[in-house]
UniProtKB/TrEMBL annotation:
Keyword Cell membrane belongs to the record: yes
Main localization (coarse): membrane
Cross-referenced PANTHER family: OLFACTORY RECEPTOR
Superkingdom of the organism of origin: Eukaryota
All residue ranges annotated as the G-protein coupled receptors family 1 profile domain in the record: 39-285
GO molecular function, one term: olfactory receptor activity
Gene Ontology cellular component annotations, sorted alphabetically: plasma membrane
Designated name of the protein: Olfactory receptor
Organism for this UniProt entry: Cavia porcellus
InterPro entries linked: GPCR_Rhodpsn, GPCR_Rhodpsn_7TM, Olfact_rcpt, Olfactory_Receptors
Keyword Nucleus tagged: no
Localisation: Cell membrane
Annotated Pfam families: 7tm_4
Transmembrane stretches, start-end: 25-45, 57-76, 96-118, 138-160, 201-223, 235-256, 268-287
Length: 308
């Protein structure tokens, strides 16, 4: 429940107030967002229509692309539109909705990355038990648990935000609503809330990153017992996953595992994981994955044939 809240809307300062830079940002981020949509929707369509991509790895990749699309959409469209106005404002309710969707799909992406690491571990280290451990029912349950866990995480963020009293000022030095910049505007001591934030978002990011890196170290170590061709294929897949993990988690850990103090570089780091990573993920997975590229080629060829 909202407490002693006299603020009905917030002013978002964005990345810059310079008119020329705002036009540049509009064009640049519109291109990035459209590229994110096209790349991820192409992967989603390819996986759904290709029988060759029916394995659990691509089942999880489907949900990673879906979460990437929604994660970027929770931030990018509004940010792009805000560059066209002189003063960008967001109501308190819209701010809470953005906090919820941003954390929901961000947390979902973390859980999906963990599931992809589990899938690769079983496939490479326990190949004889792969179809038993990673059957369609198990994969469906794991994804459902990821959705529920993401919802719980986001609800915690909302409850923390609702516990903060806002009585002015209402200027957020950021381009989207998040709990960290909101803490600086609260008319109360936010020490406990910040501890809860770090123990929630910060712990999820840090623990997940450590678990993922340890799991991939174990996977890469086990490849020494595989054939040269098996090592090459598994290594290519794992390197793609590790690249995505580093690009996503390192900026998140920097933002969410420290006291509620903002730095000028925070906004640029946030751009990297809210806009850049969802844009790069489809490129990383398609350029390094022959099966996905072949399936996309077949899909494109089939579409051209049907058009003729």
């Amino acid at each position: 429940m909202q407490l002693n809240n006299t603020v009905t809307e917030f002013i978002l300062l964005g990345l810059t107030q310079d008119p020329l830079w705002k036009k540049t940002i509009f064009i640049l981020f519109l291109v990035f967002y459209l590229g994110t949509l096209c790349g991820n929707l192409l992967i989603i369509t390819t996986i759904k229509t290709s029988q060759a991509l029916a394995s659990p790895m691509y089942f999880f990749l489907f949900y990673l692309s879906l979460s990437d699309t929604c994660f970027s959409t929770s931030i990018a469209p509004r940010m792009i539109v805000d560059t066209l106005v002189k003063q960008a404002t967001i109501t308190f309710t819209e701010c809470l909705i953005q906090v919820f969707t941003f954390h929901f799909f961000g947390c979902l992406e973390i859980f999906i990355l963990i599931l992809m690491a589990v899938d690769r571990y079983v496939a490479i280290c326990k190949p004889l038990h792969y179809m038993t451990f990673m059957n369609s029912r198990v994969c469906g349950v794991l994804v459902a648990v990821a959705w529920v866990g993401s919802c719980v995480h986001s609800l915690v963020q909302i409850l923390l935000a609702l516990s903060l009293p806002f009585c002015g000022p209402n200027v957020i030095d950021h381009y989207f609503c998040d709990l960290e910049p909101l803490l600086e505007l609260a008319c109360a001591d936010t020490y406990v809330i910040n501890l809860l934030l770090v123990s929630n978002s910060g712990a999820i990011c840090t623990v997940s990153f450590v678990l993922l890196m340890v799991s991939y170290v174990v996977i890469l170590h086990s490849l020494r017992n595989h054939s040269a061709e098996g090592r090459r294929k598994a290594l290519s897949t794992c390197i793609s996953h590790i690249t995505v993990v580093i690009l996503f988690f390192v900026p998140c850990i920097f933002i969410y595992t420290r006291p509620a103090t903002t730095f000028p570089v925070d906004k640029m780091i946030a751009v990297f994981y809210t806009i850049g990573t969802p844009f790069l993920n489809p490129l990383i997975y398609t350029l390094r994955n022959a099966e996905v590229k072949n399936a996309m080629s077949r899909l494109w060829s089939k579409k051209l044939t049907s058009d003729d």
